[in-house]
Inverse folding.
């Protein structure tokens, strides 16, 4: 090994800058600019597909929704509110348990249903139904809703989110597919918060 | 020349790092700056390294798949030798890191260290704080259990409130229409690649500036920062009364860093890992989701804000807060550094600290949440409330218990705290007021008019009317008494 004891004896070569004519220099700058422009073009061409890939999950609500069966209507006694579970129509094989969804089914009359999202209209926590006091209560920040889904008290600014429901043959179906939030469900039903409206503009199709 | 020295100079001749490193180690720092107050920045850095190492070790086993993550965490906890310890180190390391970063920031603020020429060091520090919080939140998602699941639901619900693009943002955040496999994968990417990568770059620049611009001098009342003179004054201070960074200032950093890591390890051994709680099955709704410690204050805020203020608050307050933090050093680049001359700064810091403490405390026992099981799971109404009661009043007590009034109202110290305790409600409300409140609700109370039969209401109210101390009469309507009673004027 040839190790110099003092690095200074063997200094890194200093850049020597012999005088070059200005034409050569400006040509080099031009070439660099062309290089940068070339990079910009290639970069742009690649960015477009990358962005499309990145935003692939952003779709119109309709693309995610479809009619899902909640089982025979006989499972839901008239006048009662029961928990129902279904598998989200859009799912991946590695979703595990998370592709399951729960909702509350209220059978108002023989052929009239209200199906409420499990997610509190405040910030999405799972609401629980208390048949004794006829209230839905939220465990997170203390929101409460009446039996018809309208707001009773607490932080939520509106009633529970509802799914469109229909009866096909003897099974109950709902139009589901995505987590209900203020941005995708607020337009579905406008419960005015007044508890004397028993149905709101419920979009149930009995 | 010894063999070691030969190897060193062979390496350094190629690496060219020796000279700058020695210069850095020898650069003078103000004497009084070699203080225990200045150890938090280096401790935060040490904790970052600890998180990286423990994180990599956990990634050897963890499966970032919605279907398997929870199982792999339980495998780490219960089956893999010392897997629980690594999880506990990473979890406690995270808590310590957030705490130390916050203390570091408070200290820098208190010492006016963000002033000229260190404005940009502060700016990067603010981003580092945000990234640390980002790591804490995404880390909570990695612990893919019920709390993580519903925490994501809360996050998505907040995001959905952004005007116009809310829905698209939710899809972006979740990677699809629901919280599921795609969601965990993207949070894994954030937690393991994106944020740590950015953090390393920002940390490098942050530390680089600290070394190049010099450590902030001890603030003295009357020593005012001016752009025109500061550099010369600082140079004069470090040459007149300075000492070399190594070992002068660094030995305390070394001791404190070791102590912090030891503290993390002790907490890990004594308290163990965090969770996972129940499996992330959204159809299991018997759950009371709660965020991790450093987000409890937000949880409390979200419970107390009036509904109409909520969306503006959620969307505007963070922007204003971050803008204020980022703008601070540019607004106050010059002037006094000493806390003796900065009363408003002290006031702001105290207010923030006290609010944080109070809200966090509230967040730990959630007085706003109904106790879902209070009506059925706890002690019944004590006999002393009932032993002189009429049959009607007893019937009222049954209604009280069965209609879940107790989920929100406590009696004899047991029940929810959402509504007022009712032990002496009769001293505050007359019979008519009680009936009105039960039937129509109001304040935060739902109306029970449709859920109670008239006889149930009569029984309930007659029970409530008995709730007053023996030596204090129940409230009565004076006007009614005047109109009907024999003692009317
Ligand atoms: S999520 Fe239900 S009250 Fe906040």
């Amino acid at each position: 090994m040839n190790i110099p004891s003092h690095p200074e004896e063997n200094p890194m070569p200093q850049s020597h800058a012999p005088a070059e004519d200005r034409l050569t220099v400006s040509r080099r700058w031009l070439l660099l600019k062309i290089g940068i422009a070339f990079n910009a073009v290639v970069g742009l061409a690649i960015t477009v597909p990358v962005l499309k890939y990145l935003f692939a999950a952003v779709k119109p609500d309709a693309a995610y929704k479809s009619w899902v069966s909640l089982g025979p209507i006989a499972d839901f006694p008239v006048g009662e509110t029961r928990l129902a579970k279904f598998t989200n129509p859009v799912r991946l094989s590695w979703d595990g348990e998370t592709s399951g969804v729960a909702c509350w089914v209220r059978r108002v009359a023989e052929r009239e249903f209200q199906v409420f999202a499990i997610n509190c209209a405040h910030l999405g926590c799972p609401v629980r139904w208390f048949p004794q006091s006829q209230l839905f209560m939220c465990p997170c920040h203390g929101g409460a809703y009446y039996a018809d889904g309208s707001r009773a008290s607490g932080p939520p600014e509106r009633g529970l989110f509802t799914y469109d429901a229909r009866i096909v043959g003897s099974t109950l179906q709902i139009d589901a597919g995505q987590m209900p939030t203020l941005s995708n469900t607020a337009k579905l039903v406008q419960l005015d918060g007044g508890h004397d409206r028993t149905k709101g503009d419920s979009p149930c199709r009995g | 020349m010894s063999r070691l020295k030969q190897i060193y100079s062979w390496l350094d001749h190629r690496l060219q790092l020796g000279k700058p490193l020695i210069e850095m180690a020898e650069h003078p720092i103000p004497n009084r700056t070699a203080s225990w107050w200045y150890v938090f920045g280096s401790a935060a850095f040490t904790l970052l390294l600890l998180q990286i190492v423990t994180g990599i070790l956990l990634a050897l086993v963890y499966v970032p798949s919605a279907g398997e993550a929870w199982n792999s965490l339980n495998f780490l906890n219960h089956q893999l030798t010392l897997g629980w310890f690594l999880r506990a180190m990473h979890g406690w390391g995270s808590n310590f890191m957030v705490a130390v970063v916050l203390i570091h920031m408070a200290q820098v603020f208190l010492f006016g260290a963000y002033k000229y020429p260190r404005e940009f060091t502060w700016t990067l520090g603010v981003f580092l704080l945000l990234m640390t919080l980002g790591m804490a939140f995404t880390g909570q998602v990695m612990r893919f259990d019920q709390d993580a699941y519903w925490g994501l639901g809360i996050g998505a619900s907040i995001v959905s409130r952004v005007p116009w693009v809310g829905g698209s943002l939710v899809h972006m955040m979740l990677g699809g229409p629901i919280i599921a496999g795609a969601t965990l994968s993207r949070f894994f990417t954030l937690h393991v690649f994106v944020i740590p990568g950015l953090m390393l770059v920002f940390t490098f620049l942050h530390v680089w500036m600290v070394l190049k611009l010099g450590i902030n001098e001890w603030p003295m009342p009357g020593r005012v920062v001016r752009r025109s003179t500061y550099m010369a004054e600082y140079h004069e201070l470090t040459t007149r009364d300075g000492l070399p960074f190594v070992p002068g200032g660094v030995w305390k950093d070394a001791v404190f860093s070791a102590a912090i890591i030891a503290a993390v390890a002790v907490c890990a051994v004594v308290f163990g890992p965090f969770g996972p709680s129940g499996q992330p099955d959204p159809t299991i709704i018997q759950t009371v989701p709660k965020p991790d410690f450093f987000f409890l204050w937000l949880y409390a805020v979200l419970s107390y804000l009036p509904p109409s203020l909520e969306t503006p608050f959620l969307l505007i307050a963070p922007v204003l807060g971050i803008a204020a933090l980022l703008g601070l050093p540019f607004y106050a680049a010059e002037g006094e550094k000493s806390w003796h001359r900065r009363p408003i700064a002290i006031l702001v810091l105290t207010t923030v600290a006290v609010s944080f403490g109070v809200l966090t405390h509230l967040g730990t026992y959630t007085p706003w949440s109904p106790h879902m099981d209070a009506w059925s799971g706890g002690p019944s109404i004590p006999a002393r409330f009932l032993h002189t009661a009429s049959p009607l009043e007893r019937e009222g007590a049954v209604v009280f218990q069965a209609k879940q009034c107790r989920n929100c109202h406590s009696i004899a110290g047991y029940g929810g705290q959402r509504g007022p305790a009712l032990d002496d409600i009769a001293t505050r409300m007359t019979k008519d007021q009680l009936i009105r409140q039960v039937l129509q609700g109001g304040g935060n109370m739902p109306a029970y008019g449709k859920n109670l039969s008239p006889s149930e209401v009569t029984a309930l109210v007659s029970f409530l009317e008995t709730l007053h101390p023996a030596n204090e009469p129940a409230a009565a309507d004076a006007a009614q008494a005047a109109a009907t009673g024999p003692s009317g004027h």
Remarks:
- Chain B has a mean pLDDT of 90.
- Residues A 120, 122-125, 138, 140-143, 154-156 surround FE2/S2 (inorganic) cluster (CB under 6 Å).
- Chain B touches chain A through 76 residues (CB under 8 Å).
- Residues 125 and 206 of chain B are 7 Å apart (CA to CA).
